[in-house]
Amino acid sequence: MLTVHHLGKSQSERIVWLCEELGIPYDLKVYQRAPRLAPPEYKALHPIGSAPVITDGDITLAESGAVMDYILAKYGEGRLALGKDHPSFPDYLYWLHFANGSLQPGFMRLMVTTLLNAPADNQTRQWGDKRLAQMLDLMDQRLSANPWLAGVDFTAADIMTVFSLTTMRHFQPYDLTPYPNIRAYLQRVAARPGYQRAMAKGDAGMELLLG
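Above: the chain's sequence. Below: its structure in token form.
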């Protein structure tokens, strides 16, 4: 049995959501933060000690992208991923990797400069703020012409991306008012039954920052 080890308010929500969208059987184990970091029993699952982690038989696997690829390859049966012959395959690949290659690091840089109380004229903060705004502008433009990041199809690229735009803002508040297409996109996400089930199972009672 595939087991998803979900740390509350973490990137492992992506994996719970993926399993719900695919409709595959899985066992969900939820771990609460203690009080902010992962508890010892979660850290013991993998040497890195961060979320997500899955176990599948004798396999233990971490890292969002790797876990996503593993589940899609083993259980996806071609769903939620676009193949090399699909016209939107390059867009799918770009946005799938943009999520943790660019967007999430952008929010992490913002969180670090905020925690360090970096002044507004700090060059590192200014560069990070500009870079994050560029990424959100790019995404907003993309979503002005497409309902989903890969195009007309909802894919794993969307599942990888939404955490940074929603739950991450519990750790680092960020105003999405300037990005109407991102906000409309999040309302489409909110309407998906798979997303609703995943968040109810993994983070019951957490405010979903979808606006």
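The chain has a mean pLDDT of 95.
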